[in-house]
Amino acid sequence: MNSSESAQLFDGVMADAARKPQLKVSLERIREACNVLEKTKAPIEVRSICEQIFAVHGNRSGPTGGAIRNQKDTLLRYVYLRRF
Fold first, then answer.
1. 75 touches 30 (CB < 8 A)
2. Which of 40, 47, 30 is nearest to 82 (CA)?
C-alpha cells in the first residue's frame, strides 16, 4: 500500500471545498472499506469494496462499482493506491 500517496489524495479531496459532497462521502466509504479489507487481508478490489460498503451501509448506498471506475482521478486512483 502506498499510504502516503493515498493519504495525500484523501486529504486533498476532503480539503477542497469545491468538490461535490457526494464525492467526499464516497471516498470516506471507500477508505472505510479498504481499512476493513486490509485488516482481514482480503484483496482490495472494486468489487470487494462495493460489497463491504453494501454490507455496512445497505444496498441503496454508494458508491457503485461503475461510479468508482468513472472517477478515475479520485476514487479509482485511491483504490489503486490502497491496493499496492
1. yes
2. 30
Most distant CA pair in the chain, distance:
35
- List the alpha helices (DSSP H) in 16-71: 21-39, 46-57, 65-70
- Residues 9 and 24: beta-carbon distance below 8 Å: no
Please report, as a single letter, which amino acid is at residue 6: S
Residue partners of 10: CB distance under 8 A and separation at least 6: 27, 31, 78
- Calculate the dihedral angle through the C-alpha atoms of 37, 39, 41, 47, rounding to the nearest 10 degrees: 0
Q: For 2-49, write each residue's pLDDT tens digit.
A: 678 999 999 988 888 677 889 999 999 999 999 999 999 999 999 999
pLDDT tens column, 39-79: 999 999 999 999 999 999 987 888 999 999 999 999 999 99
Q: What is the pTM of this model?
A: 0.86
